[in-house]
């Protein structure tokens, strides 16, 4: 497992981050979740990502349990705040009240005194940036948070936060961004990536496998396989349904010979593709079985030749989405290529 700096900060993260969205506390049994974390540690993964909203806190609890016997300084734990964790008007957003209360609740569930990376899960239009950034800065000063990040913010929103932090004379600044990014969804490339590279903000990208679509397990001419996210319970089918469609699945099938030629599985190829960019500090993987973690972690340190990258672009062609306007709306936008042929 190789490690990269998180932007221009002094923090190093593993090229592969283990995340537990839609898995721990929701789709995966506790014993299996613990086994997946052990597999991640065995593979050399040191960075773990979760959020207060994942399984309404249960995901943080399971991760905390899984890491309880691990030397705290040997791992990097990231979590998030913003999305609704209750029915009250203050149980969401980036107000000082919610940020402070959510951070303390996350620390209790994770069983730790601090998190390495605390991220604003979405942008909050209702709360002044000054209020949010001062609350974040206070948490850093208190030693409860070491580094700050955001997730799915647009370039103007990130730039505004950097400006406000400078104007307020805050010591802490945003060093990480967590966007969706994969072969098909490249909406951060036109605006977010250039800004972040200029400002020293590293990308910790999620969905490098596009909800499993880029593994090739979904066929254009057949039903989804049993025990896949598309056939599981909970919220997973709603998310995976946004990226299924015969046109897309046929193109993905045409990527398999390229993966075979490179000596990689489809999943390894997709993860290595996200890591081809120096702007990406880490790619987040999830898993429902330990062997998935072991296989996908080997994508770390795999270089992809320029000719292979060009072939991937040729196969996917006009199905690649690069519209920067979709960055902030990624949770609600249904890509054009997910529609039936």
From TrEMBL:
Please list the GO terms describing molecular function: oxidoreductase activity
Establish whether keyword NAD is in the entry: no
So which domain of life are we looking at?
Answer: Bacteria
List UniProt keywords, sorted A-Z: NADP, Oxidoreductase
Q: Name one GO cellular component term.
A: cytosol
Domain (NADP-dependent oxidoreductase) ranges? 15-315
Per its UniProt record, what InterPro entries does this chain match?
K_chnl_volt-dep_bsu_KCNAB-rel, NAD(P)_OxRdtase_dom_sf, NADP_OxRdtase_dom
Record's Pfam families? Aldo_ket_red
Family affiliation: Belongs to the shaker potassium channel beta subunit family.
Output this protein's name. Aldo/keto reductase
Organism of origin: Actinoplanes utahensis
